[in-house]
Amino acid sequence: MTSDSSILVTGGAGFIGSHACKALSAAGYKPVVFDNLSTGHADAACFGPLIVGDIRDQEAVETALKAHGIQAVLHFAAYAYVGESVHEPLAYYDNNLRGLMSVLAATSACGVDRIVFSSSCATYGSPDGMPIVETTPQNPINPYGRTKLIGEQMLSDVAATSSLRFAALRYFNAAGADPDGQLGERHKPETHLIPLALMAAGSRRPALSVFGDDYPTPDGTCIRDYIHVCDLARAHVLALDYLMTGKPTIKVNLGSGQGHSILEIIREIEAFTGKPLPVRFEPRRPGDPPILTADSSLAAEVLSFRTEMSSLRQIITDAAPWFGVEQYAVA
Known about the structure:
Elements: E1 6-10, H1 15-26, E2 30-35, E3 50-52, H2 58-67, E4 70-75, H3 82-87, H4 89-110, E5 114-120, H5 143-159, E6 165-171, E7 173-175, H6 193-201, E8 208-211, E9 223-228, H7 229-244, E10 250-254, E11 259-261, H8 262-273, E12 279-282, E13 291-292, H9 297-303, H10 312-319
Parallel strand pairs: 1-2, 1-4, 2-3, 4-5, 5-6, 6-10, 7-9, 8-12, 9-13
Antiparallel strand pairs: 9-11
């Protein structure tokens, strides 16, 4: 389905948000970005208007909703560094939860009752069984994960007393980049594995730190589920389409369903570049689960969503140019 509806995208100048805006535009929607640019980039908000503002400013959010005739909200704006959340929990509760409260108050005041919420697999914490399904108990182990779980609960409480319907998308490790070269991952500081590995491969950092090689996994390193950011963006459009047709609230996982270890990623990048990747092994970090993989069958059932670009080779091929890494050419 396509639509000419205007959609407010909070955090739309960030990594996932900007890719979602491109997907929205391609689907016929009109993305309106609302971002304070604290971590986003103005040049990434190139698919519609950019409003520079803070989501905690309810009046500014209401003004944007009214000025652009907004029909629904994609809510990405949040702090999202797990380690930082442990050291600065109040900042995370203030931005992520007070920010969501402000957005909900503004949408309620303006009669906007459809929200696609950027949630996270961090709400599950370190579960016992794999793969993770939506009925897996949500027991987050860090403040970031708790803000996402409380965010889902806030949305549920508001929906119980209003016309609000929402889609909470619990996604796993976003990676890759726009294959057209228009958008990519630009975090400061960068904490994600694949960008850090590509930076080491491109000599932009001395070595890739691998935290722990004694986990109960086949090669001793952690296993994670990586989903291409363009697949993730497409899922947000499908979730929006779902809500725009009047369907009820959903909470779904978004992942590839395939786990990859850190050493697998290192070997894939070495095969891509044709040269060894400098690696430094360090002790485990507290709280890192050995394995996190998604069961996304519910998203396939209710949204007809299946990944199309989330092979490890595709993710690395699309991300590599952003970090100055070239593919090895076989003579």
